[in-house]
Amino acid sequence: MPIVVQASYQASNSPFFPVSFAGFLGGDATASALAYSHVYGRRNLPNLYNAPGSYGVAKLLKALVQSHFWDGLHAGISVDPDALSDTAVRAPGPKFMAAFSGTAMESAGDVARMLVSYCKTLPIHSVAEGRVTTPFAVTVADLHHVPASEEHPTLNANAPLLPILASIGASAACATFGDWRCFSMIVLGMLCNAATSSVLRSGDLTFTRPGTTPGAPAGDGFLEDGNEVVVLKGSEGAVSAVTRGRFSLRFANKKSLERLATCATLSIIQSLAQLIIVPQSTVLGQFFFFLSMAVAWLYHSLMSPMDKRVKERVVMEHLLKEPSLKRYSLGTRAMMAVFLMQVLQPTNAEEQLAALIPNKTRVWSAWRQIVARRISEEKPVFDTALPTEATGFTTEEVTLLRTLLSDAQAAVNVYNNAKRGL
Predict the structure, then answer these.
(1) 174 in Cβ contact with 183 (< 8 Å)
(2) How many CB atoms lie within 10 A of CB 65?
(3) Confidence of residue 306 (pLDDT cuts 50, 70, 90)
(4) CA distances from 13 to 103, 170, 199, 279, 345 (A)
């Protein structure tokens, strides 16, 4: 027989009264946990625990349903998994320029963004000597693995035993003390969260990239995102996986999207029901409700660093198979441009230098001609002796040209020191 405990004072005056608003807080963290465990991971156990932020989760589920797109000749319905994150990066991806094929992209794909983001965390392998104006970091990525045209990468996700046990214990305690209102609200939260995670798990995380063209040149090129540059060295398939590959969450049919929409509706009902009913319960019941929410919030907080890196891990470990990455620091854009030409060795070096540094003064034009001519040599040297291109230059122009040639030599020195690793 349950033990009925009467509240010693009105539950609306309880210190745990604000917990009734938990359904409207922390939606991003809960959705992130769902994405980690049931989109990028293949967890068999559903998220059977009461969690905060159900209203925010409902909005993100609706955005996920609305993100469906045509996915070529593949059967089923595909949606954008990034829609499940309110903090998903929607800014354009990094620029891409190919060294041999002539391909230029104003915005490369999401995998390129992930790779650039990862490279920003790497330590500097070598620093160029010389002047510093606008420093650039250049990472050379050796893409030794070519992902298949379609892959289904996943991570191993641990079961959320702590919040599940906390919710089960809290609901059992509410039943023991006769607070059926809080008992029903905890169980409602558990069932809604479990239903959402189960429907998400029915989707298949899929990575696709364009097929390769027989006889196509090497895919070598570089990504540029502000002061961060990543050189891609590899076959056309390996590079296209980075620049044009994309993720989708593929469901068997339209009914799965309808189930997601139903889960979104249930999550809204959950948040409203908890807002209305929890304040009517006993102080002790509110405490156990708060306990279930607090443990779930703590669990999400501890998982947060892992959640933020989950997609990065899928890209770097599962798709690209941990490519060789070495990062270099160059003090000026001129150094960066020369270093890129040394690493890539394009046949149209002057044209690519003009794209990187489009200054049209005769000093810059002369510098580009000199660099393009000399980097084709086995051991290029950029001394400060005036070349024939500087004929007729003023004193200021000669000074500037010599400065730029010194920058070029600094870049060559970095390349020569790192050549064994490239």
Answers:
(1) yes
(2) 19
(3) low
(4) 66, 21, 39, 9, 73
